[in-house]
């Protein structure tokens, strides 16, 4: 045996095997050291494995076209997959360069297998997806070109959507759009009709399992294409230093999300969710089979609604326009600054027209890649069908027969009604977005596909929105620019100073100096913008509306003050310019500024905005009252309580100076009788606790939070609103509740657990353990210091004082003490 110390190494078993002329692939696959030799990049092995015939057999074992004998039936597919996924670059190179000969038969055999058979061969699907995922990561351009050449590839992949590995493969194809170089994956998927085909899978005629997979896939696409702080473009100065191309660092295109928000898609989804049972095809069979079929039909219809509503919720949460418009401006600004820098340092001179044309083309490219997901159609369609959703809340399609539980017979809420309540809370969040309450004709313009139109002119309007210099949509200035005439959302601006061509580019009106002002003077601090964005994009809370940004709520709460002290006092107007108007509830007069009334009239004269239209439907149908009924009817369902509290929190913390937010608050006190319900809920809780082994009612925690919002609202609401709301307060029950049970609960919540931090005696010699009760338990550090002083007085001088004296004498006494 040669000695490795002298540079001699023993030939591996693979090398010995490959030296034979009649070596077979199966013999190589049987070798135990095969995968180790692949990692070691064995030259002979690589030369053998990159052969076309060998690769055909490897792919055949993976797909099941070639079945090994009893010994290799399970081993060969696994080993073949690991070999194809190894770090042998020539294998990927050969497969992609000769895809029609190797990959196409491999894909055809897998995709032509029936979904039922593929579900029973989950290992085959897993190996198939694993190999293609490796190939996509190593050769994205070549693999995308091959996938696009496969006939009806999207339809064939979606036919296996019940198999999780195929869902992962489609998702990896979508993620190819993140690759540098803009491969155009999302536009190709859009041309193949991916979104409409996924929408069809949510039909009530499909199985609930397919509903769940399709909904999860749609939510994954929405989350992948939504802007986030981590996807902000890097600083243009950094890109110029590193030589990077800004176009190559753009986030994934949101074109698929924009398709999902189109009106025809929303209408189709809402129709699916509200499909009556009568429209489900009936079967002519025996009674037992008919009952089973009816049960499956109900399950399918309810499953369709329960999976569609989370898609709506995800679309709203991930596409907040209050966050996206600053994000879009930030991206455009960085891109245009980089282009201007390249123009300045270019060797060849370019004219101003050429430079402007390059900027316009860059604007058009980014606007096509990153459009606005306009949620106006979603709010409009859902608002028009709220009456149908209300019917399902009162008469659900699923059974509501009492069910036995550990606490007795309980009527179920049903998943169907819970999802509808979630939808109500989320669309109310959406209705508060600034874009949906913007005056028609003002702000940036977007076309039907959500693309920013207007070229460089639109960047000025976008800068006003991004920097907060544009007037609030709920408070337009009296001297509003007449150029912003009322019109449709997609109608171009009509102004003597600006004009927009048919292709969306600016034709005149913006000088180079003005462009420099937009690009250089208007800027964000990246850290601040990222931190603000992360706050707005938190999954657990919905982003605040633009109408709430400039109206901070006082943190202090007047707990001890009765409601009468918070009401409006006659003869004490809050403004010098007021007009007395009668209150609709009590006939009293309340103060209202003239300028506010003028602004309200200017808003009311215009066409209704979709945000206000939805709130008006909430008022007409009494949706808040319906949710409160469910809140108290299901005292054990904390999931429902959290959703209802979220909606009430939006209503109570919104701006109430004017508009339909004000009407929602008044309706909450007048029609929903929120104060009376809180008092009644507290009374029921007291009765439940007074019983033997009684416990608190399940909704009391959220009821206290609602009460806190109401008390805080009376602390910061305008006096005219307080005057109206105070007429609907039960006296003196509400004042007694606030000063009694509510204050007691809040004090208990604010108290420290276990009574505070204990002070424990040190137990050393010379210390007294006869502490008083006041010195045994102290709360803060100041009390701890006083406790130590008390201990010193009772126990005499401490050891530390003696040590200090010894140190002053040179430390001799200290040394003697230590030795003794």
From TrEMBL:
Q: Among its keywords, does the record have Cell cycle?
A: yes
Is Cell cycle one of the keywords UniProt gives this record? yes
Skewed-composition ranges (Polar residues): 567-580
Q: Where is the composition biased (Basic and acidic residues)?
A: 774-795
Question: Sorted alphabetically, which InterPro entries does this protein's record hold?
Answer: SAPS (IPR007587)
Q: Where is the signal peptide?
A: none
Q: Name one Pfam family in it.
A: SAPS
Which keywords accompany this UniProt record? Cell cycle
Q: Which GO terms describe its cellular component?
A: cytosol; nucleus
Q: Where is this region: Disordered?
A: 467-512, 524-554, 567-609, 772-820
**Which stretches does UniProt call biased (Low complexity)?**
494-512, 536-547
One annotated GO molecular function:
protein phosphatase regulator activity
Which family is it part of? Belongs to the SAPS family.
Q: What is this protein called?
A: SAPS-domain-containing protein
Provenance organism = Tulasnella calospora MUT 4182
């Amino acid at each position: 045996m040669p000695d490795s110390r002298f540079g001699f190494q023993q030939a591996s078993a693979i090398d010995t095997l490959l030296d034979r002329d009649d070596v077979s692939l199966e013999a190589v696959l049987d070798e135990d050291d095969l995968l180790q030799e692949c990692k070691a990049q064995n030259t002979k092995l690589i030369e053998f494995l990159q052969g076309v015939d060998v690769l055909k057999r490897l792919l055949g074992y993976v797909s099941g076209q070639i079945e090994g004998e009893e010994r290799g039936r399970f081993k060969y597919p696994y080993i073949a997959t690991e070999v194809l996924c190894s770090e042998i670059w020539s294998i990927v190179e050969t497969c992609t360069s000769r895809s029609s000969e190797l990959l196409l038969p491999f894909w055809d055999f897998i995709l032509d297998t029936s979904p039922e058979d593929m579900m029973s061969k989950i290992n085959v699907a897993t190996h198939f997806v694993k190999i293609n995922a490796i190939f996509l990561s190593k050769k994205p351009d070549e693999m995308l070109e091959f996938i696009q050449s496969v006939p009806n590839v999207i339809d064939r992949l979606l036919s296996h959507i019940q198999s999780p590995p195929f869902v992962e493969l489609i998702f990896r194809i979508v993620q190819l759009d993140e690759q540098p170089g803009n491969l155009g994956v999302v536009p190709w998927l859009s041309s193949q009709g991916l979104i409409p085909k996924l929408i069809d899978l949510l039909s009530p005629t499909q199985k609930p399992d397919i509903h769940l997979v399709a909904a999860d896939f749609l939510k994954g696409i929405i989350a992948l294409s939504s802007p986030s702080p981590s996807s902000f473009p890097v600083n243009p100065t950094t890109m110029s230093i590193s030589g990077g191309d800004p176009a190559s660092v753009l986030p994934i295109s949101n074109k698929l999300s924009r398709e999902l928000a189109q009106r025809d898609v929303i209408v189709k989804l809402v129709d699916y969710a509200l499909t009556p049972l009568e429209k489900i095809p009936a079967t002519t069979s025996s009674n037992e089979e008919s009952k089973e079929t009816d049960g499956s039909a109900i399950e399918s219809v309810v499953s369709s609604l329960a999976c569609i509503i989370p898609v709506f919720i995800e679309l709203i949460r991930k596409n907040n326009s209050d966050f996206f418009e600053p994000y879009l401006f930030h991206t455009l600004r960085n891109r245009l600054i980089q282009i201007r820098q390249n123009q300045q340092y270019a060797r060849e001179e370019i004219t101003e027209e050429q430079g402007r044309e390059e900027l316009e083309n860059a604007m058009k490219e980014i606007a096509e890649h990153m459009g606005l997901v306009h949620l106006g159609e979603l709010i409009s369609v859902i608002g028009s069908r709220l009456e149908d959703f209300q019917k399902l809340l009162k008469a659900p399609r699923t059974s509501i027969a009492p069910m036995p539980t550990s606490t007795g017979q309980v009527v179920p809420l049903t998943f169907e009604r819970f999802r509808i309540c979630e939808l109500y809370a989320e669309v109310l969040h959406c209705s508060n977005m600034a874009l949906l309450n913007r005056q028609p004709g003002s702000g940036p313009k977007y076309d039907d596909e959500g693309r920013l139109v207007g070229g460089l002119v639109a960047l000025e309007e976008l800068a006003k929105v991004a920097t907060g210099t544009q007037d609030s949509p709920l408070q337009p200035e009296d001297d509003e620019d007449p150029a912003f005439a009322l019109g449709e959302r997609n109608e171009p601006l009509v102004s003597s100073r600006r004009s927009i061509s048919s292709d969306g580019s600016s034709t005149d009106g913006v000088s180079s100096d003005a462009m420099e002002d937009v690009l250089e003077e208007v800027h964000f601090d990246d850290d601040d913008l990222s931190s603000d964005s992360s706050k707005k994009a938190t999954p657990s809370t919905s982003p605040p509306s633009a109408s709430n940004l400039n109206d901070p709520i006082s943190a202090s709460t007047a707990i001890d003050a009765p409601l009468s002290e918070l009401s409006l006092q006659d003869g004490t107007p809050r403004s010098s310019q007021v007009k007395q108007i009668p209150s609709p509830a009590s006939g009293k007069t309340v103060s209202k500024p003239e300028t506010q009334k003028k602004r309200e009239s200017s808003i009311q004269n215009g066409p209704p905005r979709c945000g206000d239209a939805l709130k008006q439907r909430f008022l007409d149908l009494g949706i808040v009252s319906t949710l409160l009924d469910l809140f108290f009817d299901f005292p054990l369902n904390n999931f429902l309580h959290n959703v209802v509290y979220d909606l009430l929190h939006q209503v109570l913390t919104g701006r109430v100076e004017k508009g339909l937010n004000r009407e929602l608050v008044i309706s909450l006190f007048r029609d929903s009788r929120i104060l009376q319900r809180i008092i009644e809920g507290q009374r029921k809780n007291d009765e439940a606790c007074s019983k033997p082994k009684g416990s608190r009612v399940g909704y009391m925690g959220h009821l206290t939070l609602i009460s806190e919002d109401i008390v805080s609202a009376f602390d910061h609401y305008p006096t005219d609103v307080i005057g109206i709301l105070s007429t609907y307060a039960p006296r003196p029950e509400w004042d007694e509740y606030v000063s009694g049970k509510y204050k007691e609960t809040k004090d208990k919540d604010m108290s420290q657990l276990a009574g505070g931090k204990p002070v424990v005696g040190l137990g050393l010699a010379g210390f007294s353990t006869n502490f008083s009760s006041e010195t045994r338990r102290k709360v803060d550090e100041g009390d701890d210091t006083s406790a130590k002083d008390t201990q010193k007085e009772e126990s005499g001088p401490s050891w530390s004082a003696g040590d200090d004296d010894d140190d002053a004498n040179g430390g001799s006494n200290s040394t003697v003490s230590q030795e003794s």
